[in-house]
Amino acid sequence: AQSVTQLGSHVSVSEGALVLLRCNYSSSVPPYLFWYVQYPNQGLQLLLKYTTGATLVKGINGFEAEFKKSETSFHLTKPSAHMSDAAEYFCAVSGSFSGYSTLTFGKGTMLLVSP
Amino acid sequence: DGGITQSPKYLFRKEGQNVTLSCEQNLNHDAMYWYRQDPGQGLRLIYYSQIVNDFQKGDIAEGYSVSREKKESFPLTVTSAQKNPTAFYLCASSIAAGTYEQYFGPGTRLTVT
Q: Helices then strands (H, E): number in chain B?
C-alpha cells in the first residue's frame, strides 16, 4: 500500500523568504506524485504533478518540486513567498485500491506567511 | 465553464436525519470520488466510481451511500448510521479509470447537531 508523510503540520515564513514544504512517500511501484493547494473553505487546486521524465517539475504560482527516488521525497519549494501563498498544501501519491486507480493524500501542511 | 459543482455550500441537519450532498460535473469525466476532510486528517476516501452504475467503497464508507445513475452526477448520502458526520466533504473527478489527476469541487460543509 502507498502512503504519504508531510513533515510539519504548520510552516511559517516571512514574505519574500524561501518556502519549503516536505513530502515523503511510500509506494511499491513507480509513483505519480501531486501537490495540491487549498484555500479556506474551498476545494483543492492542482499545483503540479510528476508522472515520468524530468524530475524537476514546475507548477503554477512559481512553485516547483523535485522527485528524488533515492530519498522517496517530493518536496515543494518556492524561492520567494507571497502573502497570497498562505493556504494548506497537500501532497498525494498514486496507487490502487481494490484494483482501481486512486490517490493517497498526506495530512496537509498549513503555510503561514507573515509580512 | 467546465467544472465540478457541489451544493449546497453549507448544510445543517439534526442528528438522526439522512442528508444527500450533490456533486455534478460537466467535464465528461468517467471517474468520480467522494472524500471527507477533518482538521489535521487530510482527505479520506469515502466512495469512488469508475463508470456509470459502478462504485466501490473507500477507506471510510461506513454510514455513507452513493449512486451513479448518470455520468455527470455522483450524489452522496450521509445516513444516520454515520457516527460523526460533521465534516467538510469534497467531490472530485478524473478523466478515466487509470488516470490519477483529480479535479475537485468547492466542497460542502455539513454540520449535524
A: 0, 11
Tell me what pLDDT residue B99 has.
Answer: 77
| Beta-carbon contacts of residue B84 (< 8 Å; ≥ 6 apart) | none
Q: Per residue in B68-107, pLDDT tens?
A: 999 999 999 999 989 999 999 999 999 987 778 999 999 9
The whole-angstrom separation of Cα A94 and Cα A82 is 29
Mean pLDDT of chain B: 93
- The number of beta carbons lying within 10 Å of the beta carbon of residue A62 is 14
Beta strands A10-14 and A109-114, pairing class: parallel
Q: Does A55 touch chain B (CB under 8 A)?
A: no
| Number of helical H runs and strand E runs in chain A | 0, 11
Mean pLDDT of chain A: 93
DSSP lists the bridge partners of residue B76 as B21, B66
Would you call B27 an interface residue with chain A, using a CB distance cutoff of 8 Å?
A: no
Interchain proximity B90–A45, CB inside 8 Å: no
Q: How many CB atoms lie within 10 A of CB A80?
A: 12
Beta bridge partners of A59: none
Q: Are A90 and A9 in contact (CB under 8 A)?
A: no
Q: Supply B44's cell numbers.
A: 479520506
Whether B1 has a pLDDT exceeding 80, the answer reads no
Query: Which residues touch A81 (CB under 8 Å, ≥6 apart)?
Result: A13, A14, A15, A16, A17, A18, A19, A111, A113
